[in-house]
Amino acid sequence: MKPAPFTYHRAHDVRGAVESLHELGEDAKLIAGGQSLVAMMNFRLARPSALIDVNRIDALRYLRRDGEGLRIGALTTHHTVESSGSTAALAGFGVLSHAARWIGHYPIRTRGTIGGSIAHADSTAEWCLLAVLLDAQIVVRGQVGERSVAAADFFHGFLTTALEPEEMIVEILFPRPAPHAALSEFAQRKGDFAIVAAAVDLDVEDGVCSAGRIALGGVDAVPIRVPEAESLLQGAPATAETFRAAADAAAAAVEPGSDAHGDADYRRGLARTLIERACAQAIAV
After folding, report:
1. Is the full-model pTM beyond 0.90?
2. Residue 272: which of 237, 209, 228, 236 has the closest Cα?
3. Which of 25, 170, 190, 278 is most buried by a 10 A CB count?
């Protein structure tokens, strides 16, 4: 299939993109890598009246340390993060480069952007899940200026976010390193969207978890944290038994829906397995 008719516009800077969004109305959409939007347009699931191409805004392509934190420009590609794992910029953020390898296939990773993935807001998308896990701030800019939105408040529902029609994502800030973090997911075929994804971030000292964070995708309309499981990690030994107990608690706490890929019990089982696997990987880092 082919997309419905639309007008094409090109922005050369953030100001121009935001002005175009304002002038063209709420049916206009930004396009960067286009790895999600174009497919939706071809199936007529999305029918924007206008596309605003932001690929020429090179100022939004960067990985930059800010104290202990990491700032990523919205137009940074998945592959840039994937291939930067050994650089100083990603020291303490190895989970980001490892997670990027789960995304689609190589051509998709070279075109798709982190900002685009966050804006698309698929609940199993790696960047959305890690943003929630690591308390990221989503920096957006509109006609009235710039604001930051906590990832926990950014995702509102299925493919729905806190972005206003005239705003665009310009940066994602990960505020602190996560040296003992890992992401694991399950898809029917390599490169497919995950059915369920799990990510964990452990604070470990002398074999004990002083704290832990667990996030799941594919069990709700948005990526979610699981406090019932996280509480079992606090002060517990970093052992397989602890991780199994946390995984069991997480599986019991979620209420996933059912679809053609599996029913609720199947998704709970995947969540349990993936959390255990991610914990084992995180502790081995």
Report:
1. yes
2. 228
3. 278
Helix (H/G/I), strand (E/B), else coil: 4: coil
Query: Angle formed by the axes of helices 264-284 and 240-253, to 10°?
Result: 150
Q: Measured in whole angstroms, how far is the alpha carbon of residue 267 from the centre of its chain?
A: 19
Residues 175 and 137: beta-carbon distance below 8 Å: yes
Q: Tell me the CATH number at 64.
A: 3.30.465.10
List the beta bridge partners of residue 155. 161
Closest alpha carbon to 96 in 105, 106, 86: 86
Any idea which residue has 């347009």 for tokens? Answer: 41
Cβ atoms of 77 and 33 closer than 8 Å: yes
Q: Confirm whether 135 is domain-assigned.
A: yes
168 backbone dihedrals φ, ψ, rounded to 5°: -135, 150
- Comparing C-alpha atoms, which of 214, 189, 182, 185 is closest to residue 197? 185
**199 and 151 in a common domain:** no
**pLDDT (average), residues 126-142:** 98
For residue 275, being part of any structural domain is answered with yes
Same domain for 44 and 74, yes or no, is no
Are 110 and 79 spatial neighbours (Cβ–Cβ below 8 Å)?
A: yes
* pLDDT for the residue numbered 199: 98
Determine the structural domain holding residue 255 and report its residue range: 181-284
In a domain, 1, yes or no: no
Q: Which residues contact 15 (CB under 8 A, 6 or more apart)?
A: none
In a domain, 256, yes or no: yes
Same domain, 46 and 66: no
Closest CA to 271 of 200, 204, 209, 207: 200
Cα dihedral sign, 203-85-172-222: negative
- Looking at residue 190, its pLDDT comes to 87
Model confidence at 2, pLDDT cuts 50, 70, 90, reads confident
